[in-house]
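FORM 7B: Structural annotation worksheet

SECTION A. Query
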Amino acid sequence: MTLNIAKHEISRGIEGGVYYFNLSDFPSISTDELKLIIAFIQYEKANNRVTEIICDNEQLLQIIKNAVSNPETVDKIRLSETADFVYHGTSIYSAKKILTSGKLLSAARVYGKTGEELAYEKRESLWNDPADFFEYIMFCNGDDMTGDYVVLSEKFPNEVDFENGNFDAGIRFYFRSDEITRHPGHVFDGYHPVKVRDEILLSEYLFACIVPEQYKESISDIVLPELLPKVHCLKQIGMKLYEWNDKVYSFIKSI
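SECTION B. Predicted structure
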């Protein structure tokens, strides 16, 4: 994979085998950003991929190469102290299965297919993830809208409906960052805040599940008893995505 480091107009993202790594203060680089780059390259190496680093600033490129060659000089990668929560977003269809079984599963486990098979099927997707990504449950930061964009990408609403809040947001499964990073299957890949291989038992790790109110009736009789106190329904229709995102995260921090 190619690691393209610059001041990109877009936030960090992987498209077509290129990780567009956006520095907050290009050409300066923070220790946390170096940690992410090191974690990404180490993860790629563990999955038998060579990373090509592209950076137009030669001085910055040398700093990065030195850090990658001597990772012990940079503190061990960890979640930012400001990321108290992470979440995994799903469609209502998937959420019903999750709340009934009590488990979050990787896509490979859900579909009973290999990562290679799923990556091929999703090759035209905007996200264009590598095969091994499908073997993990992936998370975004608690106040990030990426989870909903992933869910909506399967059938994105038209512009008018999207602007007017006439769409169905995803169901969010929230976890405390410090707790999910104790899961034996967790890894840092320098792209996601954290991800977990194969499966997560919700009774042991789930902090809260946020469900748009329009789905309340459809899930009322299927949630496992031990998970019921952690499932919360909030009104979403009529809200722009960023308004919904702010509402959900404010609620998470309040409980």
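SECTION C. Observations
The chain is about 35% helix and 20% strand. The chain has a mean pLDDT of 90.

SECTION D. Sign-off
Analyst initials: ____
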